[in-house]
Amino acid sequence: MLYLSDPITRLSGVGEKTALLFQKQNIVTINDLLHHFPRDYRRIPEILPICDLQEKSLVVVRGKIVSSPSIFSRNKRTFLSFDVKDATGTVGVTFFGMPYLKKTMVPGKELLLYGVVRKLGVKFVFDQPKVLKADEYEEMKNCLWPVYPLTEGLGNEKVRKAVRACYDCFSEIKDYLSEKNRKNLGLLNVSDALYKMHFPKEMEEVYDARKRLAFDEFVFFLLKLEKLKEGNEKKESQFVVDFAAEEICEAKKSFLKGLSFALTAAQTKVLEEIERDLSSGYQMNRLVQGDVGCGKTVLAFLSALYLIKSGFQVALMAPTEVLASQHYEDIIKMESSRGLGIHAALLTGSVKTTEKKKIYSEIESGEVNLIIGTHALIQEKVNYHNLALVITDEQHRFGVKQRSALMEKGEMVHVLVMSATPIPRTLALVLYGDLDVSVVDELPAKRMPIKNSVLGPDYREKMYQFIAKRIAEGRQAYVICPMVEEGDLDGVENVTDYTDKLKEIYRDYAKIACLHGKMKPAEKEKIMQDFKEHRTDILVSTTVVEVGVNVPNATVMMIENAERFGLAQLHQLRGRVGRGEHQSYAVFMLGNDGKKAKERLEILNRSNDGFEIASEDLKQRGPGDFFGLRQSGLPGFKIADIFTDAKILLMAKEYVENELQFRTFEEFYSLFEKENASLVDFHAICL
Ligand code: ADP
Ligand code: MG
Predict the structure, then answer these.
(1) Which of 260, 297, 547, 549 gets mutated to test ligand 1 (max ligand atoms within 8 A of its CB)?
(2) Which are the contacts of 373, defined by CB distance < 8 A and separation ≥ 6?
(3) What would the mean pLDDT of 375-391 be, rounded to a whole number?
(4) How confident is the model at residue 572 (pLDDT cuts 50, 70, 90)?
């Protein structure tokens, strides 16, 4: 009898050597092996008459050996070759490194050969085909054949046989879902699900199996979230904003009056939700979601103002220095024109040590009441006087850990998280289970939709003329290149050369600046500032402007080598224009070999909806890479996919909620401590 926790060496056919190879893939126990899923499935073809063979096709042929194998050497390798014939023709067969086959491959013997054929002169040949036994072939015909991820030293057959061996030894795995539950939910039992992942008869079975495993993965995730929430229920907060107080009312009025626009209905609704939190006497834990350009920043600033006016400190964390200093400049400007009483400090990694020390002490004394910065904010040295609100901008760029580290800087601080990660509200509610969610689901009305086009390199000259015209009208433009310096990638535009080229082209017609991530922060800041204040016309940049940068007078976004970017990223980049009253344009310029990408990028023409684009992006790139999921604060799943499996997630949510009324799932507590616990660990415990 075998147990899931047994080492794989207990399987027949798995020796120490093989076990070591498996271990390199983190496969140690039988449970691990059962969770090592195929990356693809193949159906074995029907037997093909030799006369119908085609170049480079994967085929099965049945025939008799007609010639004695001849043996020869080439490049120190021994080759063995002979001919096989059926009623319709002859095919050559070559094996290498297997001279012993000479004994068994005798004329007259019937063979079933499986492999890829290639044309050699007038004849087709098999190189190193698989020789199938008749019953083996029958078995393969009845099911799909698993193709496992490539593993050094381990052939597909070896892996398949090892998995198969698991099933020869035990009959049943217990399941944490009762049969009644499974019926209601329409799920397979876990034992069948695992089996069908490896040995499905039809793809339908793989889908069913995936569904069950995705469900388990979500259940595990949700239990973890529950644990996280525990001791995290609404806590009383000493930082209460009194919205009846005259000072607060005046500050709000003055702030709103100073804006050149009225808030949209969506902004107003979310603002009310924030105000309710801040006056409730309980800690705020709110995520504000909204597509790029919907106007989240004013909400963040106003929230900060409320607490500052109530006598507390606020920290605002942004993912890049460019964005942090933009927020800082905006606040300084607002303060100097309106005198709201905000004393802001900018704290980023590049602030000089002496300056930093000064800022630290001003933070500690409470002299500074708004601290804006990058993750330098969460460094140990910063001691706050009375931190009451932590805002993180562009949350999808931060991990959950960073968020909570900043929270721990204060006693029961309010937390406001801003994100443009386009996931639907229902999913956000579940995924950010420890947060309340507000959605700004409307863009400011006066905007004209951005005009988009995906263009080939032939149009580049025309684009330069187009940009020149916009500049003559008083607008500005961004040009984005994928690389900083000349790299080894042919035909990929780099920022520094490109800037020189444009300077040459535009000469006196436009002032051009160059921005990239490798510059010193102070330099970056100055360049950004110059662009904002229209001392430059064209900003040639890498994707450092991607997040949050706001220059409403810039109306052209031209992206070189657009094929090198993901859709979600292109959408973010495009979000830098269309922020003001003028018509804006986004041009996705394909590189010389970018033609194939045209179709992929078409969706950017059709849709301006970040959610739709993100779903498409995910489809194109596969879930693993979504926004660099791993560091995004969104959980990464092995099987499940938050977009396509949204229904299963909601099902799992309901199940967990129901179940938690009856039991505590204590058996999993040890897993919640573990950094990278996954579905495998979950199953190791619950099966
Ligand atoms: P995001 O939600 O992407 O962070 P921002 O807060 O940067 O968007 O806002 C984008 C632009 O829209 C800014 O120029 C901002 O001043 C402007 N804006 C914000 N709210 C409104 C509004 N209600 N009407 C018009 N423009 C607005
Ligand atoms: Mg923003």
Answers:
(1) 297
(2) 315, 316, 317, 318, 324, 346, 347, 348
(3) 82
(4) confident
